[in-house]
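Q: My labmate handed me this sequence with no annotations at all. I'd like to see what the chain might look like in three dimensions before we decide whether it's worth expressing. Could you predict it?
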Amino acid sequence: MATTAAGPVVILLLLAAGAAVDGRFLSNRTSPAGLVSDGVHDHRDGLPYLFLPSFSAASDSCDQTYGFMPCTTTVVGNLFLIVVYGYLMFLSATYLSSGSELLLEILGPGIIGGLFLPILGALPDAMLILVSGLSGSKETAQSQVSVGMGLLAGSTVMLLTIIWGSCVIVGKCDLQDSVAKNLEDTKGFSLTGSGVSTDIWTKYAAWIMVISVIPFIIVQLPQAIHSTSGRHLAVLIALIVSVLLLVAYCFYQVVQPWIQKRKLAYIKHKNVMYGLLKHLRMRALGRLLTEDGDPDKEIIKKLFRTIDTDHNGKLSKTELRALIVGIQFDEIDFDKNEAVDRVMNDFDTSNDQQIDEDEFVKGVSKWLIEAKHYGTSGPDAGSNSLRFLDAAHNETKRDRDLLGVQSDELVEAVKNPKWITFKAVMMLLLGTVIAAVFADPLVDAVDNFSDATSIPTFFISFIALPMATNSSEAVSAIIFASRKKIRTASLTFSELYGAVTMNNVLCLSVFLALVYVRGLTWDFSSEVLVILIACLVMGGLASFRTAYPLWTSSIAFLLYPFSLALVYVLDYIFGWS
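A: Here is what I predict for the chain of 577 residues:
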């Protein structure tokens, strides 16, 4: 951390050295005595030092942020400041991301992972949006707020286009039955045979992202119906909805690990169920089903007698364990005692910790009927008992893959948790301070660069600022995707959808609050349109599939230049702005 922390210090010293300075200058006016004037007699303050006029490409002066931060009116100077301040915002995002990962490693998901970390991840963007409309007069805020909208739109579009498409390319594996084969990449750049697949939670994240665009639609309604009277009210309603969605999303993030555990427990239960049924079928002296497709109770009773080794008419946990020891439960790794408990809990209706013959027949019959829903039915079902059990078993494996269950990943104990916690907190504090201090100077530099080049601030912030605030996120996503596993792909795309969701609820809430409190004009129809298109197209693509073939990356890449061109055409040709 000491090494990485030296970066901001060096940058800060460079900024201090680059602040406006004064020096001696020579006047071009001649004196009556024919002497060359040094200009001292023109100095109004009569101070004992001389001034050197600054070079300017636009105007003769600029306003220093906080009264001491360096500023310039030249194109090159402002470009330099944008790069420096952008790099500092990148450092802020990096510290926040690293600190969040360390804190999550210590404290796990739940309140920390679900509530604080998503907010911290969106903090640099939120700070930039906040300062873009907070400082200066109402007219200045109205002018600079386009920087915040450009960042909001640019961040969302970049995450869902360039970064999304890059993750598909670097993470591609061979697809078989819409499921990626971990670490296998033999089909090259096949548009349909190669790609990535994710778990079901990634699909849920895409659904949530699509829902999160509702405030954008609300705030645009008055302009869609060409009404001017209800715009301020629409901003307020959109703000309330956005805040409610933010609270709901954070709550979902908090309870999602609990939901995942419940679903995992259900998958484990199904795995025990179908594993035991397949094992019983192999031990059966006849078919498990009759010719009519109903459970064959006589065969099941015979199985009970073979399992009841002490012939007391009841199965104990010891006898169940002897039966289950020989069953392979695929990749799901849990001990045999857990499997015994699951069978006992499902079969033992009398709660005496033993299973009699009637309970065994009813329990196996119930499981067979449930398994038939995944396989065949009808008069010929009896002869295909293995077939429908295999279908049910394969369905369970598919559900396990969709839930992202991995048995080969061990959770290691965290060494020296106190030091890791302290390091994480320091990183989070440092990242927060950097974002709070340098967000305003960056917005001013973008505004000054726009004045010097006559390039609209929206396009500068749309292209440049997301590169700073999303760089660490982009690098992390691509590195994760390159591991070419379903689990890492799921984490990658879930984080991308989560980041866009936070843009749509947290960052938009900040933006709408600025517009409402300061009485600014909402005039961002084209910008909102590109956000809606990106979220609906990419979110819709992910909402109905868990596999992303390689051809989907081309859609993502094409959306980025399309978004830029659309804003330009709508604002500067059709005059939407």
